[in-house]
Design a protein that fits this description.
By secondary structure, the protein is α+β, with helices and mostly antiparallel strands. 33% of the residues lie in helices and 16% in strands. It contains 18 helices and 20 strands.
């Protein structure tokens, strides 16, 4: 009820109370979604897109009234003609700063906030965002952080090298206690747009998970800024996995707040990253896999578990691994429950793309209390391939962007869906509205085999509809798939081929691992 009162107050007083009007307009400006020409295309907030200014104003006034009110109060206090530069009294009130270039008047230069005053005045938006951040829990951002300018360390003169053609894609995550992910979202949106990055970033009370693409210089500045943000100060450069790419690898920039960093489908309070299994470095994991492949097979033998989806393991996986035939990570808990006997009294070594899924998956598996040990590959397949490009991982590494896969060796384990020819390059089903991935070789594509199933082929070029809604993640053909399979006794190990293992062993003898790439 109190929140509604504040919201009503803002809507009524916005035009007559300058601090509220300014805070309100600047808050809305942080939600703007520009088009390619830099013009306003709409506003995005709380997972919704608004095309009219009146609609976004109504949404902010109703849903984010408390935050706007806090910003307005802070702005009013900052303009209270205090004499101390950004100081704090008993209630952590930010006071106005004075500097020489402002001739004693109240100063809101971003450089003055960071102790570096110059003649270039920044928009008051920077001040408003500092108020937004300061309104969150004290464990996130302190006044010292505001004073040091960590929220916006990047100025236009830092962006001298953004037009270089050479690009990179960053893959990263960091688990931590993030008191107010909505504030972090505003910061991430502004940071990525400032650097010209595209990609996807997920924020939750348990941290950050993302993949972004851009120029090498933009990526470097992004890493520095993210590692400097107070809640993420525990991050290091090794938390960012790099691969060749750029802004073209993503259609747009999407930053959102979710309940989970990765959708396991269980409340993070019930299955926490803090209970995850211990790490194995790529070198340690490599040695473990070598011993596993040489060990006699049996019900109590160590188990190498792929925590990814079936379409990922179809084109690349570790030799001798169990690859669950599931299409979503949220099915993993059900897979474990259905195949609990598979894990009883066994030592489990698990892996995924970059490591984030193993954090929660290992915590869930450990909570079952049936395994003797549960270990996870630190940095995932991505980091392993940095050290062992010709190791025990066969095929390509699936990635969730327009590239679909990246390769470190020439082995092909995938097959064309139509002729079974070795093939591992995914394309989207060509039926409008369908988002299924299709493995179709060049010859089959030429013959018109570019759809995921007979249902989509029958639809042809017509719009794919079910109950009036566009197909997105699932097609009718997915209904014929078993949601969660029951593994055979001992688990499936599709790639224990002795000839392939011999080839890998010979290849590794001639190609020593890149130990320095993990330092």
């Amino acid at each position: 009820m109190e929140r509604n009162k504040i919201g009503n107050h803002i809507r009524i007083k916005r035009k007559s109370f300058p601090h509220v009007r300014l805070a309100f307009s600047q808050f809305v400006s942080t939600l703007r979604q520009p088009n390619v020409d830099g013009e306003t295309e709409g506003w995005m907030c709380c997972g919704q897109t608004f095309s009219r200014r009146s609609d976004i104003n109504k949404h902010v006034g109703t849903t984010h009234a408390a935050t706007v009110a806090t910003c307005a109060l802070k702005l009013g206090q900052m303009q209270g003609h205090q004499t101390d530069p950004i100081s704090s009294d008993g209630d952590n009130t930010i006071k106005s700063a004075h500097c020489g270039c402002c001739h004693g008047h109240d100063c809101y230069h971003s450089s003055c906030f960071s102790g570096r005053c110059n003649e270039s005045q920044k928009p008051l938006f920077w001040t408003v965002e500092r108020c937004l951040v300061n309104s969150c829990d004290a464990t996130d951002t302190s006044l010292d952080d505001l004073r040091s300018g960590l929220l916006h360390p990047l100025l236009p003169d830092s962006l001298h090298d953004m037009t270089r053609k050479e690009g990179v894609v960053l893959l990263f995550y960091y688990y931590c206690d993030l008191a107010d992910p909505w504030v972090a979202k505003l910061w991430q949106v502004n940071l990525c747009k400032h650097l010209g990055l595209t990609g996807k970033v997920r924020l939750a009370t348990e941290g950050i998970n993302g993949t972004v693409g851009g120029s090498v210089e933009a990526a470097r500045l992004y890493m520095e800024a993210t590692m400097a943000y107070p809640p993420f100060r525990g991050m290091t450069s090794q938390d960012f996995k790099r691969s060749a790419g750029g802004t073209e690898c993503f259609q747009e920039l999407r930053v959102g707040v979710y309940q989970e960093l990765v959708p396991l489908g269980i409340d993070p309070c019930l299955v926490s990253y803090k209970d995850a299994g211990p790490y194995l470095t790529p070198v340690e994991f490599h040695e473990e896999v070598a011993r596993l492949l040489e060990a006699p097979k049996g019900s109590n033998a160590p188990l190498l578990l792929d925590c990814r989806n079936f379409y990922e393991s179809m084109i690349g996986r570790f030799l001798g691994s169990v690859t669950p035939n599931i299409r979503k990570f949220s099915y993993f808990p059900e897979y474990v429950e259905k195949n609990l006997v598979l894990f009883c009294s066994r030592r489990v070594l698990m892996y995924c793309t970059g490591g984030i899924r193993c954090e929660r998956a290992s915590a869930f598996l450990r909570s079952k209390g049936v395994c003797t040990e549960v270990w996870q590959l630190h940095g995932g397949i991505h980091r392993y391939l940095d050290v062992f490009p010709n190791g025990f991982f066969c095929g390509k590494l699936f990635v969730f962007d327009e590239r679909y896969a990246i390769a470190s060796n020439e082995r092909v384990i995938g097959a064309c869906n139509h002729c079974a020819k070795p093939w591992d390059q995914y394309n989207l089903c060509t039926t409008p509205g369908c988002r299924q991935l299709v493995l179709a070789c060049t010859s089959c594509q030429t013959e018109g085999h570019t759809v995921c199933c007979r249902v989509c082929r029958a639809k042809g070029a017509s719009q794919a509809l079910i109950n009036g809604e566009h197909l997105r993640e699932e097609c009718e053909c997915t209904k014929s798939r078993e949601r969660v399979p029951l593994e055979a006794e001992g688990g499936t190990s599709l790639w224990s081929d002795e000839i392939l293992l011999k080839q890998i062993t010979e290849s590794m003898k001639s190609t020593p691992f890149k130990e320095d790439s993990f330092k």
